[in-house]
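Issue: ligand-bound run for S-adenosylmethionine - logging full I/O for the record.

Environment: standard queue, default settings, no custom constraints.

Inputs:
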Amino acid sequence: MQRLLTAADDTPRSPLVITPGCPQAHKQAGADLGFLDRHGVLTRGLREVMTHHILFLFNRLGISAADTWLLATAAVHVTFHHPFDTQTGYQPAGTTDSRVNAVNTSPTESGTSSAAVLRDQLVGTLEQRGHIRSATVERAFRTVPRERFLPGVDLETVYTRRQIVTKRDPNGAALSSASSPSLVADMLEQLAPRPGHRVLEIGAATGINAALLAELTSPGGKVVTIELDQDLADGARASLGRAGYDTVEVIRGDGALGHPAHAPYDRIVVTAGAWDISAGWWDQLADDGRIVVPLRVHESGLTRCFAFDRTAPHQLVGTTTPLVCGFVPMRGTAAHTDHHVRLDADVVLKLDATDQPDRAALSSALSHPRLERWTGIQVSDADPIGHLDLWLLVHTDRPFGRLGVGDTARTSGLVTPAYRWAGAAIYHGATIAYLAFQDVGNGHHELGAIAHGPDATTLATDLTNLLDQWDEAGRPNQPTVTAQRAGTRPAERGGISRSDTVLTISF
Ligand SMILES: C[S@@+](CC[C@H](N)C(=O)[O-])C[C@H]1O[C@@H](n2cnc3c(N)ncnc32)[C@H](O)[C@@H]1O
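Outputs:
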């Protein structure tokens, strides 16, 4: 195992020569996973994804469960310098002559980690990656025991950086979750609650964020959190009580209405995907208050988390660069249905129904051959291009949509958008063109357009022209956003109009 793990793939005597192509495929898969992880896209942790992948590979190679166990145990031994025991997988502490550097030293000697150790590690990672930036948020994260809010979830999972879904509907769609700690930290930094503040949270879920808010507003503050579902509200109240945060008020109700009894609020934080800034939030936010809200700015589900300061009774102005995020959608009176056209068993185009697409024509788009146009514009994995799809939405004259693509369509090469979760696209009649990446090596990708349909050339050219404009404009990634209470001013051209709010986004 040690020889295998340290083998170079380019020497004739390498044990890897028996699987030509495999080392390169693994390198590529590792680079792709790293890219997705850095962009916060993975819904499972890296370790879980890789374990799944390896088990799949072993199954295909016909390796038995017993041999898989043996190989995995040996790999753990070599990689982590863990002592080895044939019964348990570990043996009393001893030295190894492994040449493989440990990649993770998180487990304690007993092989498990205490909550406090894992919490400190999580905080360290969140700081390193720039999600925690202030001493106050750091202290709150070090104090709140996440495991008390996630009973039955194993400690390692509790302290990963990923979202943990805690309730699903009968079709398997997520209804509630503990949001990813990275996103929670980012949102708390945006919100900047201070001691003495009154804070309203929408979407209590497990109660973790309410506990962090209680830490941040103490002493003298007040936290009210609203949860739509009775079972979740009861659970959050019980966990908050157990963890010593019984001053937090958990209300069972519809968060879109707010909770006037404790208004005005210095801070409002919405932790479910909202379609509008509701009248209740406009009414209950203090004159100099701040609201942080993940808003779906387009019916395709394109969502950004904005922090707005109230600058006038009917005006909110975006204060920080919005966050790229995904959230379970709000239900209740604020629920909003998505619209999509199915292009293939595994591919949908999510779009704005008011654009009135020719659904029948559009659904045939993928039966037309694929046309690729590349721009020569290169981006690196580290480049800040998180708001490119928002820029395209704001600047295109064509109807905009986003592709949702399953694994089968992607691996078969039928549809290969830049990101699976955000395949920005434009469409017209029976033609679509979508944003694509082409790997050019060294962690760089070239931007381009892939089109299908009778007007493929025109739409691919339109999309690449937009990409050229974006590049020439200096690759803007700082949208400026304002929100005006609906009906308080004549409608502006280009405004995104909702029942209670008109949003204006520019770059
Ligand atoms: C992503 S979870 C919230 C995460 C949570 N704040 C945390 O600490 O990680 C979203 C929650 O919003 C709740 N929700 C959805 N619509 C709601 C509404 N109209 N009013 C109140 N809560 C709502 C869901 O039931 C779910 O529990």
